[in-house]
């Protein structure tokens, strides 16, 4: 059994939660792997997005402990959470970077920075959070998607599939990642001759 | 005031609802246009996605009547709805193709086909629904995004931004569409020199 926890909160960016949630759940739906679990982990029974969408949590923050991979969503809500020492203390006590893959979308990186996990770590440089990333000792890189050991970060909502794809590849297989990403690709990408897929 | 209704239902595709919801709501958030309203229209107080996500509706199907643009979500749920004559009758009575922009993501086109709106209309040819589209008299085209008069269709979840972008361009302006799409673009797309943006 592989478990992924998506950590979300009030004032999350809608796409950055639901894109990952949907793509990761496709491992079961499209690859026939029943033992792949995705949970939305929060501090309340539901959280409300920046656009007013109310999405139920399917687990508590404490379930971070049980996850093989933890993915931090983005959104305006991160700005108050990086000041919330009780919240950060919880993250710190539940996360285990020695054992887990740790991923963040856009401003989700701030939470990792605030608990000291990004010192000397290459991270995707989302412009609105560049200064804060530097203040946390991170090494921002001008790429949509960056992997540094167990840490993976993506910038721009539409870079989310690269991050989900990487998690699936690491936790399941390259083939499963390809299957899932193709199931969401724009039609024309699927119609291109195989040779240009590789480009 | 411009109003967009996103029609969704049980067994919807998560990305195909939330991507449009988020991007369309950014017209208010990123372009400062307060008089742009987006509603999630359903037949119940909430609908559950193919991945088990429960999302509240923010309006009833009858509010299709008030919309300047109506966007049909996709998902397995369309397959039972195209057999549900009471549901189709409601869509038919509320939609006004003379006045409204009518858009569909992937299998959302089936609902338009089932109420007879796609005869001799060019539509994006999402492979799993190709035969049904033909049976409705539609003219499938092998493109991710197709516009034919007031009808716009997109295939593949990640073609959704093209469809949302078109709706924003038609209802607001080209500039607003660009602003919204750039706010969700992968970081590297934003860093490319302007000349290659145009390519």
Considering the chains and any ligands shown, give keywords for the structure.
globular; homodimer; 7-stranded mixed beta sheet; 199 residues; alpha/beta; 11 strands
Secondary structure category of chain A: alpha/beta
Radius of gyration of chain A: 16 Å
Multimerization state: homodimer
Question: Could you tell me the number of beta strands of chain A?
Answer: 11
Ends distance of chain A? 34 Å
Most extensive interface, residues per chain? A-B, 44 and 44 residues
Query: Approximately how much beta-strand content do the residues of chain A carry?
Result: 15-25%
Instruction: State the order of secondary-structure elements of chain A, H for helix, E for strand.
Output: EHEEEEEHHEHEHEEEHHHH
Q: Uncertain regions of chain A: pLDDT < 50 for 5+ in a row? A: 195-199
Strands across the major sheet of chain A, in which order? 5-2-1-6-7-11-10
Roughly what percent helix of chain A?
Answer: 25-40%
Please tell me what the overall shape of chain A is.
globular
Number of helices of chain A: 9
Q: What do these coordinates show?
A:
Two copies of one chain form a homodimer. Chain A has 199 residues and is α/β, with parallel strands linked by helices. Chain A is built from nine helices and eleven strands. Chain A has helices spanning 14-31, 77-81, 85-94, 109-114, 130-135, 160-171, 174-184, 187-191, 194-197, and strands at 2-7, 36-42, 46-48, 54-56, 59-60, 69-72, 101-105, 122-124, 139-141, 145-148, 151-154. Chain A has a seven-stranded mixed sheet with strand order 5-2-1-6-7-11-10. In chain A, strands 3-4 form a two-stranded antiparallel ribbon. Chain A has a two-stranded parallel ribbon with strand order 8-9. In chain A, a hairpin with a 2-residue loop joins strand 10 and strand 11 (151-154). In chain A, helix 1 packs parallel to helix 6 (160-171), helix 1 (14-31) crosses helix 7 (174-184) and helix 6 packs antiparallel against helix 7. Chain A is globular and about 50 Å long. The N and C termini of chain A lie far apart (34 Å). Mean pLDDT of chain A is 95; it is low at 195-199. Chains A and B meet through helix 1, strand 4 and helix 8 of A and helix 1, strand 4 and helix 8 of B.
